[in-house]
Design a protein that fits this description.
Elements lengths: L8 E2 L8 H12 L9 H11 L9 E3 H18 L9 H13 L12 H27 L5 E4 L4 E4 L1 H29 L9 H5 L8 H11 L17 E5 L3 H4 L7 E5 H7 L3 E2 L3 H14 L3 H6 L5 H13 L4 E3 L2
Parallel strand pairs: 7-8
Antiparallel strand pairs: 1-3, 2-4, 3-4, 5-6
């Protein structure tokens, strides 16, 4: 039988699979029962969760989306924070060659790299890591119950049962992945005296600055508070870019999920979900953004779909986020 990583494609399963079966597969894959010489399995599953609401109607993700998640995660782990992935990890080799080629100092975050260089790195990771080692190996380890894939078409397709399962248990699975990843990294970096904090791993891909999104929103919809319609004073630095659905659930930074508010209201909202009445208001804003002539705004809005966004909102509540916040 062909080793998983050598497979060129894996057929997606449309047969119903019980939640118990899926929990069993996830626990086995993430636990010490599964052989892990690299952290790729954690990264793929985390990447799937980060892109869960960016799938198309067939629940497909392209390899570029996964590679971008890989690039952010591993760059910040290896180059910014200095965590080794082990001598066998191709991803670490690629990152350090890229760092040397562009003379990028250690300690620099992924967001600080020029955009054209980010794209170059993402392309390399897709070709040399995602396609070569990753998708086939995890497909085999999860017995084809999580996704099917095609290297030729550069995509993976989530099984219907697993897609619904991930929506329902996203928060718990994300925490489990990060817990096991932290343990893996601790073993690979035994000289660390302070240990690896779980919160550090959970937030490793969070942007350091949301200034570019603030500028886009101010330019195209004005400097007013989304929740109160009161004017905001950008110069006084009392303005905040708020994740409408909290970052601690979506784990990604998307223009269609950002609104402007005051720093005080942003602190008051915390990790709560806004009241349901704000959904249509946000959709009206997002539809306006989709029609703008700004090529960068249009690019950020490509993955926006209101039906998917409502699902994101509803599943955030199901995952324990309190709904109904209003100023």
């Amino acid at each position: 039988m062909t080793e998983g990583w050598k497979l060129n494609e894996g057929t997606v399963s449309y047969h119903p699979v019980s939640e118990d079966q899926l929990w069993s597969v996830f626990m086995k894959t993430l636990s010490s029962q599964s052989m892990k010489t690299t952290s790729y399995k954690f990264a793929v599953l985390r990447g799937i969760l980060e892109n869960l609401y960016k799938t198309n109607d067939e629940q497909e993700l392209n390899f570029n989306q996964l590679a971008e998640s890989f690039a952010k995660l591993y760059w910040n782990l290896v180059i910014r924070n200095g965590y080794s992935q082990g001598h066998q990890a191709q991803i670490e080799k690629e990152l350090k060659e890229f760092q040397y080629e562009y003379q990028i100092p250690s300690g620099v975050s992924f967001d600080s790299i020029q955009e054209n260089r980010q794209r170059d790195l993402i392309k390399r990771i897709e070709s040399k890591v995602i396609r070569r080692y990753v998708v086939g190996a995890l497909f085999a380890d999860t017995e084809g119950l999580v996704y099917g894939f095609s290297k030729k078409e550069r995509k993976l397709t989530l099984t219907p049962s697993c897609y619904e399962f991930l929506l329902k248990y996203q928060t718990n699975i994300f925490k489990l992945i990060n817990y096991e990843l932290a343990k893996f990294l601790q073993k690979k970096n035994p000289s660390l005296t302070h240990g690896i904090l779980l919160e550090e791993i959970e937030n490793i891909t969070q942007r350091e600055s949301l200034q570019q999104f603030q500028q886009m929103i101010v330019t195209h919809s004005g400097a007013t508070c989304f929740y109160t319609d009161r004017p905001l004073h950008v110069a006084k630095r009392s303005i905040a870019v708020d994740h409408f659905v909290p970052w601690s659930f979506v784990h990604s930074d998307e223009l269609w999920n950002f609104v402007l508010t005051s720093s005080s209201l942003n602190s008051s909202k915390g990790s709560e979900l806004p009241a349901e009445r704000f959904l249509n208001k946000l959709d009206e804003r997002n539809q306006w953004f989709k029609k703008t002539g700004d090529v960068y705004v249009k690019q950020y809005m490509e993955t926006y779909d209101f039906h998917q966004f409502v699902k994101l909102y509803e599943y955030a509540e199901l995952n324990g986020f309190e709904k109904g916040w209003a100023p």
